[in-house]
Amino acid sequence: xxxxxxxxxxxxxxxxxxxxxxxxxxxxxxxxxxxxxxxxxxxxxxxxxxxxxxxxxxxxxxxxxxxxxxxxxxxxxxxxxxxxxxxxxxxxxxxxxxxxxxxxxxxxxxxxxxxxxxxxxxxxxxxxxxxxxxxxxxxxxxxxxxxxxxxxxxxxxxxxxxxxxxxxxxxxxxxxxxxxxxxxxxxxxxxxxxxxxxxxxxxxxxxxxxxxxxxxxxxxxxxxxxxxxxxxxxxxxxxxxxxxxxxxxxxxxxxxxxxxxxxxxxxxxxxxxxxxxxxxxxxxxxxxxxxxxxxxxxxxxxxxxxxxxxxxxxxxxxxxxxxxxxxxxxxxxxxxxxxxxxxx
Length: 344
Fold this sequence. Notes:
By secondary structure, this protein is of the alpha/beta class. It is built from 12 helices and 12 strands.
């Protein structure tokens, strides 16, 4: 993947960082909260884009900060002081005060749950998501444009707030193309998934390992981006499993490029970076056979039906023998950010 020579997750372009005076017509981007997972991956793409483009009209604020009431008040004042023509919130909570256009990236499915999904979550997580969702939705009503990374996420938003359907625009998240030539695949399946409790990753890994025992030789490894404290003992002891610990965006992308296939079994997602990275790099991805995953992974998807071991085994077999062509075009970062930020 593209490496711009700075720490992953830290935006270092000259047109970045603190709320300093900028000329009229600037674009202000709030990047607070992008610390792990897909949010950090997205911020890395923004950092690289700003390095390449040398955009002097873009000011990024909030990088490295959490999203809380104090920050939201500060960023409103900063957005007004900078006299921005466009203010872009990357953290689901849109700008509310007067000023330039207000664009908001809505990328957390937990803020737009269905009744069935709510029933499957623990009470503490559900209560926290509900509190956040109330703020996210209130701010969304003040936004001029709501950007979502998939058609399924658009459906979640419009189901919850049908009056805003005319403001919702679908744009897949940006993914840099892997430098040519794509490295030769190693006999491993990469599982670059953040181990959040609601994703039930230990059980999903057990299902994969059962399928591998039925259809693959002992040499096929499973690379898991989690550490020993996150993984049950039976999985840490499995000879196929390599626990790599949590990895930054660039390292996770490199694992996808090196592996023979990717495993992305989660269901409650707004996008799914491993799906897009597999498609862009030309690696098959074992994931649920859903409309959302078909949209993002395209021909790289080796779909299966959850709860059907035979279906998963067939998907694993296909993934280990399939070589899809790299297809980075749908996720071109320059096309994406030129649209989101407007041309300089």
